Amino acid sequence: DSRNETxxxxxxxxxxxxxLFYPKFLGSDFEFTHIxxxxxxxxxxxxKWGAIAAQLYGEFAIGSPPFYKYPALGGxxxxxxxxxxxxxxxxxxxxQVEYRRHLWWKLGGVLFLGVGQVGPELxxxxxxxxxxxxxxxxxxxxxxxxxxxxxxxYGSGRNDTTxxxxxxxxxxx
Length: 173
Prior knowledge:
mainly beta
């Protein structure tokens, strides 16, 4: 973690990952492994008022997971514009980019774009099957000392009727 701020970074990187095992010998009804990888980069853009945030996120279920443990595309933090869980499978990868900018007083705005796909495995991915989401958001600086924003985002999925409005505290990533 080399971010200059925790809640509103404008430079640096944040990498995290996890591997969870669900073995039968410990009482699991389903034997599988769940892997998550989250790589984030932050760059200053166009003076001190703007920043670009980029994220590569992957989630994988190996073995025989129950349906509710399958990686799910969508939601308020990744692929905004798709209902969380609308698309599920054993391998999920998404890339998203967001331009963040202070506008005036305690208000800021964002533009975001994401592409992602789920499939039984990475080798099953096809270029024409990626889902695309894009949108716009408004920020209100709730806590200036920690730079914590309250956010409202409107996300839209390509060729999909699951457009959505998302509310939250802190940035999506």
